Structure formats: C-alpha cells, structure tokens
Write a sequence for this structure.
C-alpha cells in the first residue's frame, strides 16, 4: 500500500482517525519528516501499572508482553497500532541489507514535559487520590469505576 503522501499528511490522517477514540486524548506529531510520534496524554482509566512515572516509551513490537501497561493500556495501544498499520508498509529485506518503509513510529505514555493524566481519579479534599497511591477502602470503588469507564470505552469504540 505505497502512497505518494508525505509523512506529515499521513500523520494528519492517523491523528484524525485516532481522535475518534472516545475519552482518550492523544498527541500525534511528525518529527524529522520520517517519524510519527504518538503519545497517550489522558484516558478515563489507568494505562500504566505505576502511575508515578512521568513518561515512558512503549515498544510497539511487544505491546502484549509489556509489563508497564495495564490490561486496559494494552488494549488501547493495540487499537492505536491497528490504526497506524493501515498506513504503514515495510518492504525491508534484512537478508540483503535493504531498508525501505513508509515511516518510523514511536508510542509513549505522557511526554518528557507533561505527564499522563488518569481522568477517573477522584478529588478528595485538596489531594488527588488515585488507585495507585492509596490504601483507602474507597480504592475498590475507584477501581470499579475505572473498569466501568473501560467497559464503556470498549463499547463506544467497538473493541
């Protein structure tokens, strides 16, 4: 599926298709005219196992084996990966040391200067409390709310 479109045009198309994912905010940028960088910035469920991390790159070759992602995070990145692969082609041949593909692409959660935001977090007093940093009995209720958001997310996006 070769195309005459530039990487910037392809990035715009990917961004418009990815923006159809309800409840999730993403950053899609084109860098150096050959790299598409996709960062998940906000979601109504936990994407990372450890939410104290500001930024983490995600290896798109091993999405299902990634130990940093929650079940919901893996589902989200697999959905993003399906969209990106509609536009990506690769005719590389390692046997002859021939490299030829549409573009490079990177995934991440958050950016180096902006962290990922879990919008299912609840505000209690002056402190932001999430499932990752509380021992409160309400944590089970928060997790149930995240699972309900995720179930609704899957229905809305036909997953």
């Amino acid at each position: 599926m070769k195309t005459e479109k530039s990487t910037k045009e392809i990035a715009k198309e990917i961004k418009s298709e990815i923006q159809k994912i309800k409840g999730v905010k993403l950053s899609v940028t084109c860098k150096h005219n050959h790299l598409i960088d996709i960062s998940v910035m906000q979601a109504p469920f936990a994407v990372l196992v450890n939410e104290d991390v500001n930024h983490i790159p995600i290896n798109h070759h091993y999405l299902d084996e990634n130990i940093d992602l929650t079940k919901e995070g893996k589902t989200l990145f697999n959905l993003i990966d399906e969209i990106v692969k509609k536009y990506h082609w690769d005719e590389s041949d390692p046997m002859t040391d021939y490299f030829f593909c549409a573009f490079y692409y990177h995934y991440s959660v958050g950016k180096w200067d902006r962290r990922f935001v879990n919008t299912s977090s609840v505000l209690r007093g002056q402190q932001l409390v999430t499932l990752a940093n509380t021992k409160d009995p309400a944590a089970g209720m928060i997790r149930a709310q995240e699972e309900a958001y995720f179930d609704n997310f899957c229905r809305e996006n036909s997953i």
Remarks:
- Strands lie at 25-31, 35-43, 56-58, 104-109, 117-118, 122-124, 127-129.
- Residues 122-134 have pLDDT under 50 and may be disordered.
- The longest helix spans residues 139-156.
